[in-house]
Amino acid sequence: MRESDTPTAARIGAAVGALPLRPSLVATLRDYGIYLALAALVVYFAIALPQFRTPDNALLVLLQVSVIGIIAIGMTFTILTAGIDLSVGSLLAVAGMFSGVFAQKDPSAANVLLAFLLPVVIGLLGGAINGVIIAWAGVNPLIVTLGTLTAYRGFVVWYRVNPIYDLQPYYRVVGQGTVGPIPIPAIILLVMAGAAWVVLNYTRYGRYVYVVGGNPEAARAAGIDVPLLKFSVYVISGFCVGVAGLIFTSRLMAAQAISGQGFELQAIAAAVVGGASLFGGRGKITNTIVGALIMGVLFNGLVMLNVPAPIQQMVIGVIIIAAVWLDAVLRQRGY
Length: 335
Description:
Blueprint: H1 7-17, H2 25-48, H3 55-80, H4 88-103, H5 109-135, H6 141-159, H7 172-176, E1 178-179, E2 182-183, H8 184-202, H9 204-214, H10 216-221, H11 226-252, H12 263-273, H13 285-304, H14 309-332
Antiparallel strand pairs: 1-2
Helix pairs in contact: 2-13, 3-8, 3-11, 3-12, 3-13, 4-5, 4-6, 4-11, 5-6, 5-11, 8-9, 9-11, 12-13, 12-14
């Protein structure tokens, strides 16, 4: 018997079919309108600001977007299961700090290995802590990650409040290196986004993520281990944060306890602007990356227009509220 003919696969197919997917002009605009929004922003700033349309500025936007884009990939996995991860900025600071500790030491093989691998391990561990509490203790993801946001930040400030500078020259390659004209962080972002896209679109695990987020009761009836899957998406989020922490620390060539403040807001903004529903079950990695690009282009243009930083933060808040409101309206109308 083929796998697709099994009763479990049939139930999963029925669960996926139960998700609210209605082709229409509104749904099309919901999925692809962000591409038009990105194009409109680029055209506006290119006309208003001659310096915006230079190749160097385009590469700068890609570099600036890389860290938030990588975090937003993991955030998308959690949002698809109707969860959230508010701890990403604080966890990034922890991962970056421990990476910096070893990157400052003599470049022995052990220290180099730890400088590059330890932030990823710490990210995985921090994500796993979130996942265990959410998946098996049954605590709301918002409450759990709000708590770990505070706990992780408190830990890194307690561990070392003073920044770490004078990192070894080899360490800058991840955050400041290029392949030709393309920044290495942008290449890492594209590779991770491609891998996440394949997982969500062409694997059983990816189908399970959508089913759990869209209809958890149907997922349980189909035999999916819902707690284990919810645990796994927070581990994925932690992995993305660990990689982002390594890139961010390498780019600054400094490890700071204040690193990553506000990154959770920017990552959520990238995902929801990209069309990911905070109610779960809907979202695309490609759209999340476009959402991150929209935020990056917007920030870049506002800085060139000398818009104060507090106003930039207000713009992010308004964008998030508008995106969530629009998603709620579309869901109420069955789109």
